[in-house]
Design goal:
Structural class: alpha+beta
Number of helices: 13
Radius of gyration: 22 Å
Shape: globular
Oligomer: single chain
Number of domains: 2
Distance between the termini: 32 Å
Number of strands: 17
Largest sheet: 6 strands, mixed
Strand content: 15-25%
Order of helices and strands: EEHEEEHHHHEEEEHEEEEHHHHHHEEEEH
C-alpha cells in the first residue's frame, strides 16, 4: 500500500454513516446490491486504487478555530455539549473538562494518563492550525507521542488494531518528524456543516502529522462466481426485495425503521460468529428489547407476507459478506508500508471503497467487529 500526499482530498467518513458493503441492500434495495457487486468486481479492473485503509483511531477529536480566531481542541462529547462549555480554548480548560467527567471520578488512575496526554498535545495542535483558519477538523487520534520503533517499524495501537509502519518509507519518515498523529475525516464549518477535508495541506510544522490516505497498490483476487450467482438472485427477485423494503409500505405500517432493525440484527450476529445470518432473525426479533411488542408482531407478519423477498435479501447479504471477507484477506496479505494486526493476527479494521454513488466499508466483522464489541468501555 502507498500513501497519497496532502494535496489529495481525504475520504469523508463522518458526516454520513458509510455502510458496510453487505448492509447497503437494506437501505438501497436491489439497485444498491447491484452497485456493491459491480464495485467488488471492479476491484480487479483498477477499482482497487479507490480503496484506502480504514484507520482504527481513538479518541475522536475536533480541533480548529472559531470565528474569533480562538483555538479549540475537544472531543465529540465536548463539541456538542449543552450542559457545559466543552469547547476548550486552553490546555487547562481541556484538562478541567475531562477531569469533571464520571469516568475520571470513577477511575482517576486509569483515566489520568489520557487526560494528561490530551492536555499535552493541545499546544501542538494549536500551533499546527493557521491563525487565519476559521472552522474545525474532525478526526481520530492515532498516537499522542512519537511511536516506538520495533524491528524497523514504527508501532502504535490507538485502539483495537496495532499498526506497523516501515521507518524507511515516506510515511515512516513523516512519523519520525512528528510528535502526534491524527486521521482527519471531515471539516466542520462554523455553521456545523461537514465537508470533505481539503485544507489538510495547510497545517503548520511537523509536530502534528495528519495521516494521508493509504491506498491499496495491487488488485485483489475477487471470486466472481458467487457474485454472478448473487446477481442472478437479484435480477430474479428484485421486485420482491424492493417490495420488502418499500418505504411507503413500511411507513403505512409504522415500521419505517425496518432497515435499521435489519442492520442492528446483523451487528448483533457478530457476537455469535455470524452463523445462520438471516435464518434466526425471527428468534432475535422476539427477544430484542429495542423493538416494541406491537412492532414485533407487525414485522413478523410483514416478513411472512414478503417471504420471498426476505429470503433472497439474506442470500445476497451472505454472499456479499463472504466475497468481501476474501477480498479483505487478499489485501491484508499484500506487502505494504502499513501492516495491521489484531491480537497478533494479520488484519485490521478493513478498508473504505470510495464511489461516486456512495462509499462503502469493507470491514471484517468476524474479526475486527467482534474484537471491538468485546471491549468493555
Amino acid at each position: 500500500m502507498r500513501f497519497h500526499q496532502f494535496n489529495k482530498p481525504l475520504l469523508l467518513e463522518a458526516s454520513a454513516r458509510i455502510q458496510h458493503a453487505e448492509d447497503i441492500i437494506f437501505f438501497e434495495g436491489s439497485a444498491g446490491a447491484m452497485r456493491v457487486l459491480n464495485s467488488l468486481r471492479n476491484l480487479e479492473k483498477g477499482g482497487y486504487s479507490d480503496v484506502t485503509v480504514k484507520w482504527d483511531g481513538s479518541p475522536a477529536i475536533i480541533f480548529g478555530r472559531n470565528q474569533n480566531g480562538e483555538f479549540i481542541l475537544t472531543d465529540k462529547g465536548g463539541f456538542v455539549a449543552k450542559g457545559y462549555d466543552g469547547k476548550a480554548t486552553s490546555a487547562e480548560a481541556l484538562e478541567a473538562m475531562l477531569k469533571a467527567r464520571p469516568g475520571y471520578a470513577k477511575d482517576p488512575k486509569g483515566y489520568g494518563p489520557f487526560v494528561a496526554n490530551m492536555k499535552n498535545v493541545f499546544a501542538m495542535y494549536e500551533k499546527a492550525v493557521p491563525n487565519t483558519y476559521v472552522g474545525f477538523f474532525k478526526g481520530d487520534l492515532l498516537y499522542f507521542n512519537t511511536p516506538k520503533i520495533e524491528e524497523g517499524s514504527y508501532v502504535f495501537k490507538p485502539q483495537i488494531v496495532t499498526y506497523s509502519v516501515d521507518t524507511n518509507s515516506e510515511l515512516g519518515k513523516k512519523i519520525s518528524a512528528s510528535k502526534t498523529g491524527v486521521v482527519v475525516h471531515s471539516q466542520v464549518g462554523i455553521d456545523g456543516t461537514e465537508t470533505k477535508p481539503t485544507d489538510t495541506d495547510n497545517f503548520i510544522g511537523n509536530e502534528v502529522l495528519v495521516f494521508p490516505p493509504v491506498t491499496v497498490e495491487k488488485a485483489p483476487q475477487v471470486p466472481n462466481a458467487p457474485l454472478d450467482n448473487a446477481e442472478r438472485i437479484i435480477k430474479k427477485d428484485a421486485q420482491a426485495i424492493d417490495s420488502l423494503l418499500n418505504k411507503s409500505t413500511l411507513g403505512s405500517l409504522q415500521i419505517t425503521d425496518f432497515a435499521d432493525i435489519l442492520y442492528a440484527y446483523t451487528n448483533s450476529k457478530v457476537d455469535t460468529g455470524l452463523s445462520n445470518l438471516g435464518g434466526d432473525f425471527a428468534q432475535w426479533l422476539e427477544t430484542t428489547p429495542r423493538v416494541s411488542k406491537n412492532k414485533k408482531v407487525k414485522i413478523a407478519q410483514y416478513i411472512q407476507d414478503n417471504a420471498q423477498g426476505f429470503s433472497s435479501l439474506w442470500e445476497v447479504v451472505n454472499t456479499i459478506m463472504k466475497v468481501k471477507d476474501q477480498v479483505i484477506q487478499d489485501m491484508d496479505s499484500q506487502s505494504s508500508t502499513v501492516k495491521q494486526s489484531i491480537n497478533g493476527n494479520t488484519g485490521g479494521e478493513g478498508y473504505v471503497l470510495a464511489s461516486p454513488k456512495g462509499s462503502m466499508k469493507l470491514v471484517p466483522r468476524a474479526t475486527f467487529s467482534a474484537a471491538n464489541r468485546a471491549v468493555k468501555r
